[in-house]
Prior knowledge:
The protein contains 4 helices and no strands. By secondary structure, it is mainly α. It has one domain. The longest helix has 30 residues. The chain is elongated, with a radius of gyration of 18 Å.
Amino acid sequence: MPENILQLVKFALVGGVNTFIDWAVYLLIIKIYSPESIIYYTAVKGFSYLCGMINSFFLNRYWTFNVQSSDNEKKRFLKFVLVNAVSMGINAGSLYFMLRLNSHHLVALFLATAASFAFNFSLNKMWVFRRRKAAPEATGR
Length: 141
C-alpha cells in the first residue's frame, strides 16, 4: 500500500478514536448538565474537541506519520495546536450553523466532524508532521 494511502487510513483510524473521545465527552456533559442554549452546545463541543485533539497529537506523531523526536518539537506542537484550533473553529462553526438550521444535534455533530476532517489531514501531513528531506551529501568537489 502506498505510504500516502496508509497514512490516510491511519489518520482516519486515529480520527475514529479521537471522535469517540470527542463525542463521548460531549454526550456525557450534555447528559449530566441539561443544555440551555445553542451557545452551550457549542462551548461543550469546543471542550470535547480539545480532549480528542490531545490524543490526536500523540497517536498521529508516533503512529500515523512516524515522526521521531527533533529539536523543533515545541514548534511542531504549536503548529499542531494552530491547525487544530482552525479545525475546531470549522467544527464548532459547522455545528452552530447546522443547529441554526434546526438540525438535530447528533446530525449536526456528525456533519461538523466531517467538515473538519479533510482540512485537518492535509495540513497535518503537509505542514505539522512533514518529514524534512535529508540534505544531499557533499561530494568534496
